[in-house]
Amino acid sequence: MTPSEALVRDHTVYSCVMGSRAFGLATDDSDTDLRGVFLAPTSLYWGFEKPPAHVEGPAAEQFSWELERFCALALRTNPNVLECLHSPLVEHIDDTGRELLALRDAFLSRQAHQTFVRYADGQRKKLEADVRQYGAPRWKHAMHLLRLLVSCRDLLRTGRLVIDVGTDREPLLAVKRGEVPWPEVERRMTRLTAEADTAALHSPLPPEPDHARVEDFLIRTRRASALQADPDDQVVECLVDDGGGGVR
Length: 248
Fold this sequence. Notes:
Blueprint (H helix, E strand, L loop, with lengths): L2 H9 E7 L1 H4 L9 E6 L15 E3 L5 E5 H9 L3 H6 L5 E4 L1 H8 L1 H4 L3 H24 L4 H20 L10 H8 L5 H20 L9 H16 L22
Parallel strand pairs: 2-4
Antiparallel strand pairs: 1-2, 1-5, 3-4
Helix pairs in contact: 7-8, 8-9, 8-10
């Protein structure tokens, strides 16, 4: 096991299952995609060599972000990262992870309209390129794009991010199986994008994420890590004379 993989093994604060299993779209051949957040000990930042911002592994289909990187991406309303905080399939969570989940609403804002729709537009262009080159899109990707657009629209309408597709499961799986003609899939994408645009005009979400609240959490978490006298991490607690005979 590499040092980076050991960070994931020993310092994960939150991990969950994502992909089709979390979306309610799993079939017999679906992979189990693991996503997580680890907290690198503060002492690892004191040297020239910094800990990684993300790690692949150690398990197959496993990807983890360091806490600061994860929060930064979530504050930019990155769809893939935000959805991790709303997975119904939590694999592991500690006190720091629970506090992170309690901050879910701090990351949500009307900025999700631009990031989700922009991401969807990029994915749609790739599907259109597949149609031009091969005569058909990658149907699984088309299914997930429709799912994302529904999620975006409903987030803007309600202020809540729900990733399980619920009653949309069978219509979406029909797309995955190639049973829905591409022109119809395109019409659905166009309609959902327009509905998201309309929802953004009256969304209950705040204009921006709550950066201050998230940063306060990150600083407190880093400080707590630094003050843990862990010999393995070589954390040294320094006492500084405050000029009055005491320490601070």
